[in-house]
Amino acid sequence: MNGDILFCVVVGYLCGSIPFGLILTKMAGGGDIRTIGSGNIGATNVLRTGRKSLAAATLILDAAKGAFSIFIVSLFLSKAVLADAYLGLVGVSAVIGHCYPVWLKFSGGKGVATGLAVITMLSPISGILFIATWILIAYIMKYSSLAALTAFASSSISALILENNEISIAIIFITLLAFFRHTENIKRLLSGEESRISTRPKSKK
Question: Which of 84, 92, 63 is nearest to 173 (CA)?
Answer without folding.
Answer: 92
